[in-house]
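Worked Example 4.2. Consider the chain below.
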Amino acid sequence: MPEPRDTRRRPARRPTINDVAAAAGVSRGTVSRVLNGGHDVSDSAQEAVERAMRKTGYVVNQHARSLVTQRSQSVAFILSEPQERLFEDPNFNVLLHSCTQALAKQDITLLLTLASSLEDRKRLGRYLTGGHVDGALLVSTHSGNPLIPELLARGLPVVACGKPLGFERQVAYVAADDRDGARQMVTYLRSTGRRRIATITGPLDTSGGVERLAGYREALADSAPELVAHGDYTRASGEAAMTQLLERAPDLDAVFVASDLMAAGALTALNRAGRRVPTDVAVGGFDDSQIATNTSPPLTTVRQPYPRIGAEMVRLLLSSIEGESPAAVIIPTELIARESA
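Applying the procedure from the previous section yields the following structure tokens:
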């Protein structure tokens, strides 16, 4: 009797670089050069190889590619804040999404890492400089952060979101024009007849906190100390700072808050104190996050374009990975008038 046939379905053979070369009508070396950056490859050959890759279903073996290029095809997104801030503040998610999209176009993976404590930063420093990533995007970096000098000493390309205080000449960065945005807001509040304008700052160990306070002071010229309270970009800190301001300066008629999230907290404090917004106290925020349209009333605020900031950060990082010197990009902000002021 004949032996029964094996009818089990065998897995399809994975397409190889030789299959791509045959389909494209080019040499194996040409395909290899396309996969490793397209150097010394004509446009017609590049297009032929890309068509052949789609036709054959070829997928790049990233491990093998890394052995050749000495690159991991990965970039770290480092948030120097506690984990809960990632979920509370919508700005981080918008920035993370825009960076992920920009890197995906280059077939690069983004790794989210949190570094809120000294131990986190030490552990992360060892990981980042161990060849696991090609570069790092630094977000919400505070002055005195030991991670920056460590990464620089190890030669890892880095780009910061916001000016990296103390490292402006050594680290590439992309920042909104925080100072001008604050000036715009305070000038606008004054144009509506407000005269006792307070502010709730961000952390003064961050460039955003420093620059927005500076813009507030420049626009007023004669700001009183009792009109300045400090927050840390959380809703709770905005509520607490607004309560302090009402106690110290009950005659204030406007407040510029250095983030929309803190402004939402300030609105809670004003409502509890029986102050009408904007009739009694006008409120201006900063960011134009989704929070700004969900408060009651909706926030007048300063827009910083996070999608563009993320794309520029990725562009600078890829340039730095290719060996270019650090550069800085300052992006203009825009006043968005709504019902709160």
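The chain has three domains: 17-60, 74-176+307-331, 178-303. Confidence is low (pLDDT under 50) at residues 62-69. Compare this with Example 4.1 before moving on.
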